[in-house]
Specification:
By secondary structure, the chain is mainly α. The chain contains 32 helices and two strands. The chain has a two-stranded antiparallel sheet. One of its GO terms (molecular function) is proteasome binding.
């Protein structure tokens, strides 16, 4: 049987739509047949059409949901069958809620999902058929720890979370009537279980949100506040405030003092009491842990609280006054050098307040898509944003001096979010502190923090006047960030450079059109590129071992190849030619650096960015070093090393390796078919990479601008300054691919035929 050399080829948009329609129709037929046969074994493969970037019409997805609901009902008593159907339903409902043609809530054409079958199924399995009353008497044996039960409750809870958007009218009142009898703290297990189930099942649409909030707030106050307990109720309060702000926000005002006091106890800041409450010591039963959403209850509490606080901001709300009081009280306890306990929680509070505020501003401006339209009675103003920045920015900048990388990352994200809502107040302060922090070699943690901040705020910095020149200075200063003795700083430097390169094309002034602006930064790019290449190779030359377990090796594995793809892909022809010549000279020199894997990544990127020139400079000398005159080199280390480099040259070469085909096949024949394993192993890797380069499908380039902004020579069309800081939105992206040519496929077939027979003979 012949070997199929073709991989999955890219698909056109129209073909994608047709394939999505076909798979959705097949899923509908499959579920109809399952109903007739009574088996749910093949339910999950039917939702494979959801993996495509194609959304079927809401009407068809609704029909699929109805079929799956019937399958779910027919699987009654079969734990695995119910779990499969519930998981499939959760996936389909997740896509259905995002359909643009889905009818609004309350419309007669909108599908409804009954809540009682989900609720009854969950309890039946967890109580083994017993009721609430018999379970309280000890007649039920809860299933805990078995894989079937775990898969069951995970699928059912995910199904309930998606289905509550489609519960029928009046479901909220019915659910409250069902669970209200168990809101009694005398039976702790039932009390906690009922509260957790309410957080999963309570829908957003209800008749009297204010009355429901008042009742649930009373239940929240019944027991001591533990992290899991607060998480359950703050999740409910946050959802109610987001989806019913006009009714819930006024009703929430009397509860705000107790909520903020509970937040202080959750964070761990002393509240002035002689015996402060320790919510982390109020344990949550282990057999009910599956009902709590998330893994870290303390962090999730802060996350839910920040969301609730931001969506209750308004002129008639006391939220901002309480938040200001809380921050003024906690400021003395906030120290950047104390990364543990309440300091990290306070930093998370600052970061999440900024993030949720920026999200709300984006939703109100129509920049973010949401599942449900925002129905807030009050729209945030510029004065609100300035007040937020004046309150949060000083504390956020204080955390900039931290030595902890997580703290620095959260600080960078918080400053970015504040800059997005009020750039005039934030960006100038960032510009004042950025370059001095990077230049401060005596405080390396500030250097790392400034690098992370530049990576996060690159797009904002490029929009301000003089931002491009400042980015040029940052590029020159951060060459030293590639540091052999500091793997963490090296990783953040590569990430920062990739963030900048995704928005700044590297153009030589000689390549730009006559009418284009030529910032001063461009005149130092050649020197910077040479310094960066030499710096990376000097690190690779001096690292004694990059084996598994060494942190620098992990850093380079994660970032080096992606950095050089962006670095070389964004260059103009003159710069790229210079860089490729520099790389080729370092690779083909007489000394063999120890880090062959990472040097190979650089070679791979050079060939991908400029295949013809890179192969012309690399392939002939590498072939001569492996097999000069058709015989293997006498030096074993050189043969192994340069064979490895040849493999990286061919990995993404495609049709451009055709002029060297005869020479390559001769080298492969010498190495891959060698009797000694140390040679044949590298030769077989070379053969695999050669075949992969001939038949693989790859993106055409990694440039930040659309193809229309580049001419045939790879030079920007239009003004250079206008092209910096531009990112294509996903809707405008048109990704081209390098498809295997008929000549590539013919050569691959010939190579397989040529080397398969000797290989089989060796096996025999």
């Amino acid at each position: 049987m012949p070997i199929d050399l073709l991989r999955h080829l890219p698909i056109e948009q129209e073909a994608l739509r047709q394939e999505g329609e076909r798979l959705a129709n097949e899923a509908e037929k499959l579920y109809a047949n399952i109903l007739l046969r009574g088996s749910s074994r093949s339910v999950l493969p039917g939702v494979a059409f959801l993996e495509l970037k194609y959304t079927p019409p809401a009407e068809q997805l609704s029909r699929i949901v109805q079929l799956l609901l019937k399958i779910f009902e027919c699987a009654h008593g079969d734990i695995t069958g119910e779990a499969r159907a519930a998981k499939a339903l959760g996936q389909v409902l997740k896509r259905l809620i995002k359909c643009p043609d889905l009818p609004p809530p309350g419309s007669p054409n909108r599908i409804t999902v009954p809540w009682r079958p989900i609720y009854a199924c969950l309890l039946r399995v967890q109580f083994r058929g017993a009721s609430w009353e018999s379970a309280a008497a000890g007649e039920a044996d809860q299933i805990v720890g078995t894989e079937a039960a775990k898969f069951h409750y995970q699928s059912l809870l995910a199904f309930a979370r998606r289905a509550r958007n489609f519960f029928p009218a009046g479901a909220a009142e019915e659910i409250l009537d069902e669970l209200r009898p168990y809101f009694c703290p005398h039976d702790e297990r039932h009390f906690l279980r009922a509260a957790a189930l309410l957080s999963w099942f309570l829908p957003d649409e209800m008749k009297d949100p204010a009355g429901v909030l008042a009742e649930l707030a009373g239940v929240w106050d019944l027991v001591a506040h533990g992290h899991e307990w607060n998480l359950i109720w703050w999740t409910v309060f946050s959802r109610m405030a987001r989806h019913n702000p006009q009714e819930v926000v006024p009703a929430l005002q009397p509860l705000l003092p107790r909520l903020f006091d509970a937040l202080l106890r959750t964070i761990g800041v002393p509240t002035g009491k002689s015996a402060p409450s320790r919510p982390d010591r109020t344990g949550w039963p282990g057999d009910l842990a599956w009902l709590v959403e998330g893994r870290n209850a303390k962090k999730d509490c802060v996350r839910k609280f920040c969301r609730m606080a931001v969506y209750t901001l308004g002129p008639d709300s006391a939220t901002w006054a309480h938040m200001t009081t809380l921050l003024s009280y906690t400021a003395p306890f906030f120290h950047p050098l104390n990364e543990g306990d309440h300091t990290s929680s306070l930093l998370q509070l600052l970061s999440l307040m900024s993030l949720n505020y920026a999200k709300r501003v984006g939703i109100e401006a129509g920049r973010h898509s949401v599942k449900k339209p925002w129905k807030g009675a009050y729209k945030l103003t510029a004065e609100d944003s300035e007040r937020l920045v004046e309150t949060l920015l000083p504390l956020t900048l204080t955390a900039f001096a931290s030595k902890d990388s997580t703290t620095q990352f959260l600080t960078s994200q918080g400053i970015k979010d504040l800059s997005s809502v009020c750039p005039d107040k934030v960006t100038p302060k960032v510009l004042e502190m950025l370059l001095p922090a990077i230049e401060n070699v005596m405080r390396p943690h500030e250097v790392v923090g400034a690098i992370m901040l530049t990576s996060t705020m690159a797009s904002q910095l490029l929009r301000v006047e003089g931002g491009l020149d400042m980015i040029g200075q940052v590029l020159r200063l951060t060459v030293a960030g590639v540091d052999l003795n500091d793997p963490g700083k090296t990783m953040y430097t590569f990430r920062m450079l990739m963030s900048i390169l995704s928005q700044v094309p590297l153009m030589d002034p000689a390549d730009l059109p006559p009418g284009s602006s030529k910032p001063e930064t461009l005149y130092g790019l050649q020197e910077w590129a040479v310094e960066m290449i030499d710096r990376v190779f000097s690190v690779l030359d001096n690292v004694p071992s990059l084996k598994k377990g060494f942190y620098m090796g992990q850093v380079l594995s994660a970032t080096l190849g992606r950095f050089f793809d962006a670095f070389l892909g964004q260059m103009s022809p003159t710069l790229r030619s210079m860089a490729v010549h520099r790389i080729a000279r370092r690779v083909t020199q007489n000394l063999c650096p120890p880090a062959q894997k990472y040097v190979g990544c650089i070679v791979d990127s050079a060939v991908y960015a400029s295949p013809q020139e890179a192969l012309r400079l690399l392939l002939p000398p590498l072939c001569d070093k492996v097999a000069p005159g058709g015989a293997l080199n006498a030096s074993e280390s050189e043969v192994v090393y340069y064979t490895h480099m040849l493999g990286h040259c061919l990995k993404r070469a495609g049709p451009h390796s055709a002029p060297y085909a005869a020479r390559l096949e001769g080298v492969i024949g010498c190495v891959a078919m060698h009797d000694e394993k140390k040679y044949s192993k590298e030769g077989q890797k070379l053969l695999r990479k050669y075949l992969r380069g001939l038949v693989d499908v790859l993106p055409a380039d990694f440039r930040s601008l659309p193809p229309a902004r580049w001419d045939a020579n790879g030079v920007i069309v239009g003004d250079y300054a206008e092209c910096c800081g531009v990112r294509q939105p996903p809707s405008d992206c048109s990704v081209g691919f390098r498809i295997p040519t008929p000549d590539c496929l013919a050569r691959a077939r010939a190579i397989v035929d040529k080397f398969s027979a000797p290989a089989l003979a060796l096996v025999g």
